[in-house]
Specification:
By secondary structure, this protein is α+β, with helices and mostly antiparallel strands. Helices cover 44% and strands 16% of the residues. It has four helices and three strands, in the order H-E-H-H-E-E-H. The mean pLDDT is 92.
């Protein structure tokens, strides 16, 4: 069974940060793809690193999915 992609309304209810797999689900890509983009430094969303673990910043995820022009730093 495939999980459905969350809506912007759903994502607005998420905590300030979410796991990479959850962020990838919202973006419509695989967690492996998003992890690779993070590793290369060209992730479409801002992340925070805690040791080897990364989390996606929900506000930036909303920015990307809303089509705003500002680039992630």
């Amino acid at each position: 069974m495939t999980e459905t992609r969350p809506t912007l309304t759903d994502i607005r209810k998420w905590p300030a940060t979410v796991s990479v797999p959850k962020g990838a689900q919202a973006l419509g890509c695989s967690p492996n793809h998003l992890h690779e983009r993070i590793r290369r430094g060209d992730s479409p969303v801002k992340t925070l690193q805690f040791g080897k673990r990364h989390v996606v910043i929900t506000a930036d995820l909303l920015r990307v999915l809303s089509g705003e022009d500002r680039e992630a730093v």
